[in-house]
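Dear Dr. V.,

Thank you for agreeing to look over these. As mentioned in my earlier message, I'm a first-year student in the group and I'm still getting used to reading structure tokens, so any feedback on how I've presented them would be very welcome. I ran two proteins. I've put each sequence directly above its structure. The first is here:
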Amino acid sequence: MIGVFIADDHAVMRVGLRMLIDGQSDMRVVGEAPDGASAERGILEKNPEVALMDISMPGRDGIQTIASIAKQRPRIRVLVFTVHDEPGFVRAALSAGAAGYVEKRAIDTELLAAIRAVARGRAFMNVTHPKLVREDSERESTYGADRIADVALLSARERQVLQRVAEGLTNREVAEQLHVSIKSVEAYRARLMTKLGLKSRAELVRYTLECGVLRAPALRK
């Protein structure tokens, strides 16, 4: 059973989300809050598998709350659910530690798929802002070109590990998929992080998004 905490300042939205989530056989709402500060307290108390977080809330906003939760309880997966689809918000949320980002215009089935995906340790993106698409294209010919060149230096196995780690798979899951030992995955992971100059999984996810190794649709599992 996936425990979900809802953080949204609109009461009607919280009621609708609770009805949707509680109507599923594999998830339930364990708490809710109308602002960032009370959301953080509730999430730390209820310890849900997934925290469904809006960005714009009274007082402490969602980005600050995500960063605080990621620092205190990195196991809790935060899924942003917001009307904001601007690239700046997306990057800020991912940098703060969000595992996924879904626009409120998404249909119910997409939101439920996102909750299940991040609960399993995967990433999920559903953002269709034209500027984000345009920026992705521009990166391919400038900054992205250098990054793609860096990826070319990786071995085939390192690229396989890179993509799976960015998708949110654990070392054990990567090992099972590639039919290698966990120690081998750890070695490949350390090697590719060194080659790419990355220090954390958060940096790795941002890197793969920026250089096009992982695009938004590819994050869905």
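The second protein is here, in the same arrangement:
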Amino acid sequence: MGSVLELTLGIMTAMGGFVDVSELVFAAQAGSRFLFALIWVFALGTIGIMVFGEMAGRVAAVSKQPVFNLMRQRLGLQVGLLTLVGAVIVNGITCAAEIGGLAIVLQLLLGWPYRLLAVLVTTMLIATIWILPFKGIERSVGLLGLFMIAFLAVTAAIDVPWKDVALGLIPSTPRAGSSMDLLSYAYFVVAIISAVIFPYEVYFYSSGGIEEGWSLKDLPINRVTTIVGFALGSLLAISLLVNAAVLFSAKQIDPQLPATVALQAAIPFGKIGLLLALTGMFFAFAGAAIETCLSNAYCIAQFFGWEWGRYRGKAEAPRFTVAWLATFGIALAIVLTGIGPLDLVEYAVVSSILVLPLTYFPLLLVASDEKYMGRYANGIFANVMGWLFFAIITVAAVAALPLFFITAGGKL
């Protein structure tokens, strides 16, 4: 019974914490602008995060080594340090975007000044990590993020052309449009892949396995959690796209802010729907902010060989504690400059795609190394899928910056 409960909670947590501010905004914009044509990208990215997430959890359970412990070993000091710097920047910007999104949600509910709410939100997040143990953080914030199911209810309540949705699972390009439209479409493909396979998810997931003392007996739970949990989370992201295509596209509404996305639930369900949507968004963003902040501390501590982990007391891992506190402080400072959450999201997504190949290359090497992993090393299927998605993210990384500048972040 305990294993079943652990598995159920793990799946629910993965689903509740899957959609952060970047995925929410890009999913809604993709539906509003390109209707159902980008659903296949979410499906593709979800398979990718399943593949890499399962590997990261398996390596953590077998070797007791999280992803960033492997960076320096497999990439060497210089390349490993470059990856660390990139990861820290991406995590910091993403954390700032999540704090900004949280402040916007509360501003809609309370009407208080944006910067004041950003300070209050950051204080709340610090208190959450300071007081709760790792599993308490994961379960409480992750499960409360399940209020995002309100968006699935919207999909069920509106008139959806399901045939077009099914066709959206087949890779295609927009049927009509200028060359700039095609370039913007390509930018959204790259951005969605980055948003779905954000590296912090793997940093946090593998480190979480160590935090919870995973061993070989947890390998089945790891596999089912990464497959079912991420699949359900992706279904939620696709529902955001479908809702936007049906409700926003014809009215030419561009959902650039979380507040606009929340209106999806208000259209069929009124104030109750809006409140449920905002609640789900609040806890989903809070979970992502905590994950990115802790991921930064994990990356830094693991790379330099410091004591780390929430399972250790604060006195046992003081530099780890300083690292996550500093991440929140820097993220808040970025928000207080007045940079909009949407701009932060775009910077985070583009920066993330550049770091992805360096993140997953050492993971692939270790997961496929029979000397290191023994009989738990990648099989033929896992290796084929791993290297296939490594090739995909490498191509996306090469294309990311040119597409970002040519299309002004998909705005042209």
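From my reading of the second output: The chain has a mean pLDDT of 88. Residues 258-304 form the longest helix (47 residues). Does that match how you would interpret it?

Kind regards,
E.
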